[in-house]
Design a protein that fits this description.
Blueprint: H1 3-91, E1 96-97, E2 111-112, H2 124-133
Antiparallel strand pairs: 1-2
Length: about 140
């Protein structure tokens, strides 16, 4: 009978180890479930982030196209506008329009504050014609 207590002792140690392993297995299972839930949450969030980035890129493309459009319109309008403003300023008599042989839309006339008379003569009809139809060239 001496072997029975030793066997019982060993059996008890084995049962304790099995209980410890079972408890450890439960903790590991819980941790794996938490990690799985976190991973699923991250996947959902990454999907939302991908959608948000695609929306931002789409909006950015639209904004860039609008900026390009505004720049193109400005480039088209600025030269005739500056030319018209220069001619109106000159026609009002506040500044002198310098003579030039090739006055075209896009070639703004030079203006000076000099009050000397110029050999260049332009009438209001010429200004209106240039503004409405463009000018191929003007001679003295």
């Amino acid at each position: 009978m001496s072997k029975l207590p030793e066997f019982m002792y060993m059996l008890k140690r084995i049962e304790d180890k099995v209980d410890f392993l079972a408890a450890s297995n439960m903790l590991l299972t819980e941790n794996v479930e938490k990690i799985s839930q976190t991973l699923n949450s991250l996947q959902l969030n990454s999907g939302k982030l991908t959608t948000d980035v695609e929306d931002i890129l789409s909006s950015s493309t639209k904004i860039n196209e609008h900026i390009d459009f505004v720049n193109d319109v400005y480039d088209t309008v600025k030269s005739p506008f500056h030319t018209a403003m220069s001619m109106i300023t000159w026609a009002s008599g506040t500044q002198k329009l310098e003579p030039c042989r090739n006055l075209e839309i896009g070639n703004e006339p030079e203006i000076s504050d000099d009050t000397e008379e110029s050999e260049f003569s332009i009438g209001i009809e010429d200004i209106a014609s240039m503004l409405l139809f463009g000018s191929k060239s003007m001679e003295e």
